[in-house]
Amino acid sequence: MTPSPYLVTARKYRPQTFSEVVAQEHITDTLKNAIRLDRLAHAYLFTGPRGVGKTTAARILAKAINCATPATERVDAVEPCRTCDSCRSFEQGRNLNIFEIDAASNNKVEDIRELRETVRVPPQGSRMKVYIIDEVHMLSNAAFNALLKTLEEPPPHALFIFATTEPHKVLPTIQSRCQRFDFRRIAVTEIVAQIKLICAEEHIEVDEASLVLIARKGDGAMRDALSVFDQAVSLCGTTITYDTLRLALGVVDDDLYFRATEAVLDSDTAAMIHLVQTVVRAGYDIQEFVDGLSEHLRNLMVALTVKDLSLVDASTSMKKRTAEHAGNFSESTLMALIHIAGETADTLRTARQPRLRLEMALLRMASMPSSVDLKSMLDIVKRLEQKADREGIHLTVEAPRQAQPPEPKAKEVVASGPEPQKELAPEPKAEAHRERESVPVSTVLESAPTPPGLHVKPAIERRPRREEPRAEKATDDVNVLTAEAPTTNDIGALEKAWADLTTDVMETRKQIGSLLSHSTISTFSGRTVTLAVPDDFHARTLSAERSKLAHQLGELSGIHVDTIRFDVHAPAQDDVHDGENDLDARAFLEQKSNEHPAVRTLIERFNGEPTW
């Protein structure tokens, strides 16, 4: 007996019923209901990627329509029985009522005219004549136009099924006369499940990693995945292992991707150079390596954000490893890495030196500053500033300074009230000690190392701080801390600094700046500035800003300012306005609006009123 010829797996296990079609239930269920309810259209358009079952579904539909077995004896009252003469003749390729036409080789108008002549002839021994036209987008415009009339009003015994991977090339007039069904790509898990069934039928042993690799190489197409499976069987025989299969298919080892991301964590640029050398020496395609790296970074992002490892197309062990590795990154860092990988993938297609382009991309990844520490530091500073603003506290941290010679001196205690209190300190010990002073938080942050690529510019330019007055010894037995009385130069420096501060604040916060412009420094005593304000509103509003104002005033003047007090002092009636006509503010603006028609037009257009 002559042995049966070898058939590739894609043909041998081609679905013969609707239930065997993989991952297209949204289409097969609709077609089954149409047959069951006798609501078949006269033309269908099947679209989708290659190898997902378009032509197979068309063949099953044609076979089910002409099946001679009664519906009550069929599965689901729809599925073809595969035992009647019509089904067997079609599977054997000798059915005269089902026509498969390749539009790529029959795309002329003469071919369509010949088809129109055969459509008129009724079917012989079957219910309907079915015309399956594959790759219908290859028809010429003249051929499409010749088919229009027949497609719009076909004979009752004719059914057209068009299949195409490029529906945008089909004329809109053809599409409007068809029911369109869009086939989707097949997921990796669904391809793996189908290959497992085939392996069980063929008695082939294969590990999970190999199944995932085969399914990923299929890129959503079952036919392509089965072609890779045939290649794997030819190479490995009845036992397929991942390492052997990976080398045979030239797939980049996943360990290289983990080496790349570990080098990013360590900021190891030298490791990146060695990694590129490994990729080139192993003969891997650079474009494929970058695409695989992008997918690896995407898997890390999914594992970090979604926490659903079913969205990662990998084996169980690889999913676990990806999840553990993803915990070392932040979302912003992974997004930046994905952006670099995407840019590199686009530029490699036209790059004259792809290796150099890959090296530069990996070096950018390795030298990219981590956003984790910087972001956390900024968040902490922001929370501290908000809390200080709410409680009116001047934030300081303890910073060490050089040791001073042991001498009797007083100890300063800062109380919660506005006035700093002072108490006598006990006699210090004879040995040398380190004295700590209060330093603003911003000073400490500026002294910290700045990440690469980040330049911090202070909002207000600092002036050198003057030396604080030292305590004087009053007697031999008791040490009393005395501060020098503020001089006229101190008041003048504070007033000049206050004017500069008002100008700086006015540029960014006009409301606060306006309040500051109506406030003046009246006294300075015990590191406390007394601010004269015209009313309670100024005092309440500026109280929330007292810590910032004291800090900035001290930096601009070079004088240590602990806090600010407010003295409500209503201005005299004669000093309200210094205008030449001695008008109040409202009358002054009313006069200006009358003098300038443009100002009056603006006030009337926006329904406003002059205010000071």
| Total number of domains | 4
Distance between the termini: 109 Å
- Low-confidence regions: 408-484, 573-583
Rg, Å, rounded? 42 Å
What is the CATH top level name of the largest domain? Alpha Beta
Given the helix and strand composition, which structural class is it? Answer: alpha/beta
Report the average pLDDT across residues.
Answer: 78
Total number of helical segments? 25
Major sheet details: 5 strands, parallel
Level-2 CATH architecture of the largest domain: 3-Layer(aba) Sandwich
What is the tally of beta strands?
A: 14
Here the CATH topology of the largest domain equals Rossmann fold
What is the CATH superfamily classification of the largest domain? P-loop containing nucleotide triphosphate hydrolases
Strand neighbour order, sheet with most strands = 2-3-4-1-5
Please state the overall shape, judged from the principal axes of the Cα atoms: elongated
Describe the protein in words:
The chain contains 25 helices and 14 strands. With 612 residues, it is α/β, with parallel strands linked by helices. The protein has four domains: 9-182, P-loop containing nucleotide triphosphate hydrolases (Rossmann fold, 3-Layer(aba) Sandwich); 188-249, Helicase, Ruva Protein, domain 3 (Orthogonal Bundle), CATH 1.10.8.60; 254-372, Zinc Finger, Delta Prime, domain 3; 488-571, DnaA, N-terminal domain (GMP Synthetase, Chain A, domain 3). The strands form five sheets. Strands 2-3-4-1-5 form a five-stranded parallel β-sheet, covered by helices on one side. It has a three-stranded mixed β-sheet with strand order 12-13-14, covered by helices on one side. A two-stranded parallel sheet has the order 6-7. It is elongated, with a radius of gyration of 42 Å.
